[in-house]
Amino acid sequence: MSPFEHGEVFVLDDGGEVDLDLGNYERFLDIKLTRDNNITTGKIYQSVIDKERKGEYLGKTVQVVPHITNAIQEWIERVAKIPVDGKEGPADVCVIELGGTIGDIESMPFIEALGQFSYRVGPGNFCLVHVSLVPVLNVVGEQKTKPTQHSVRGLRGLGLTPNILACRSTKELEENVKEKLSQFCHVPAANIITLYDVSNIWRIPLLLHEQKAHEAILKVLNLERMDSIAREPKLDEWIARATIFDTLHDTVRIAMVGKYTGLSDSYLSVLKALLHASVDCHRKLVVDWVASTDLEDSTAIEAPDSYKTAWNLLKGAGGILVPGGFGDRGVQGKILAAKYAREKNVPYLGICLGMQIAVVEYARHVMNLTDANSTEFDPNTKTPCVIFMPEGSKTHMGATMRLGSRRTFFKIADCKSSKLYGNVTYVDERHRHRYEVNPDMVPEFENAGLQFVGKDDTGRRMEIIEIPNHRYFVGAQFHPEFKSRPSKPSPLFVGLIAAASGQLDRVLQDRCTGHAVSEKHVLSNGSYTPAIHQNGHPKKLPNGLSNGTYYGNGNGVHA
């Protein structure tokens, strides 16, 4: 999946490669989803074709209706019974996201399936929230309702009637606009929610709560009665996090050196993990995007201004991060970034490919192995520091990588990575790679001073590297960003931000003693207590963090 077309590919514990929207749900709800939570047209058609080949349709003509639509409904009902929050038993409510835009031909079978589904389960068991844009004409500042009116008309023409309208706009909807939408869309004014621009994304759940969106949903689903399973949301800690974010002033600059810098969604989870860590360290995050190709010598000749700008950004950053990627474009620039970080003692975090190029750089410039390379970029290299994994496939690209949650064991207890994780003996992190550090060269690297502090259960697969006498030089073969949460930021990202802001020694000490630097710790010891006002009254900050809900819109269907 091209990052330019889809954004990042999010990886789940079970190895599922899915749309980045599922990452949003995991982060906001602190849950673990599976590959079956991502329903695609290809999966549905494949399942129907497989059934037909097995003779399950008894030779009948297989059609979109009823076979495809039935398969979609069966998939939703099956997945809805699988718990994702760590508790036993099925969930009380299943959230289904139907992405795209009304009228898209790709989503037609899903719309028809949900129309049939809503009719079959009946009122009180199905609540449809329609997300729509209410644009504002800058010239006169008027909020236009026509796009929403037409999309609701199109939706009703396809057999679905919205119960709630979630209207996206730059500012809060005016009352007369709500009344107009209610009249033309046949939705009660109380069920028209406005999602306007806010200072940070963590305020969205608070915005929904303030407009009683949860009560509207509960009413449609007949869950609002006193003896129901519904409870008042506990959002005090969510308020604390959003407030802390808005009060941060001291900045920390991180240079993101990659090849897809033209589309920030390509590194969405990395950005979110940096954000979680920066709030944890009470720093305002500033990300400087550096195209790795702009750091290369060829750019100095072809585009000297771009070359100068890229190097100025790199040299002005407090920390450097090289994320994962595929292909040889821009690799030399990433190697130069790793070299600069190592030589200038600048905090560095390399993820997946970022770790591999750090190993190649070390071999070339510390061990004087000038022809060192990865077989991904030079299959005939005489010094293969990074090699293709034996179990991989070179003929089939889809789902043939080392994917999903794998265990990493710490081999050096006193290393920075182990301390950041709380001195545990192992961690489970998510992977997505075809190449690995050549295990036959590991003794040579270790003799030259590069430590492989984390390895898999066999001891043959390198997972984490460190340079011990460096402020913070860490590489991880796995992707720690996929398991970062607002209340539980990824330890390796916390290490990078802490090192870049001069807090690493304190953070390591706190983590070793079991006092992680987080909102919970900082708020409880009284060193950071911004005032929170609710309904005009000061409110004491709570001592922890909790989960919230984010209603998003995107492509694909997620149950």
UniProtKB/TrEMBL annotation:
SUPFAM superfamilies: Class I glutamine amidotransferase-like, P-loop containing nucleoside triphosphate hydrolases. Residues 1-223 form the CTP synthase N-terminal domain. It comes from the Eukaryota. Transmembrane segments: none annotated. Keywords: ATP-binding, Glutamine amidotransferase, Ligase, Nucleotide-binding, Pyrimidine biosynthesis. Pathway: Pyrimidine metabolism; CTP biosynthesis via de novo pathway; CTP from UDP: step 2/2. The keyword Nucleotide-binding applies. Coiled coil: none annotated. InterPro entries: Class_I_gatase-like, CTP_synthase, CTP_synthase_N, GATASE, GATase1_CTP_Synthase, P-loop_NTPase. Residues 534-559 are annotated as: Disordered. It is an enzyme of class 6 (ligase). Residues 264-497 form the Glutamine amidotransferase domain. One of its GO terms (biological process) is 'de novo' CTP biosynthetic process. It catalyses: UTP + L-glutamine + ATP + H2O = CTP + L-glutamate + ADP + phosphate + 2 H(+). NCBIfam families: PRK05380.1, PyrG. Catalyzes the ATP-dependent amination of UTP to CTP with either L-glutamine or ammonia as the source of nitrogen. Belongs to the CTP synthase family. This is CTP synthase. It comes from Zea mays. The gene is LOC100285653.
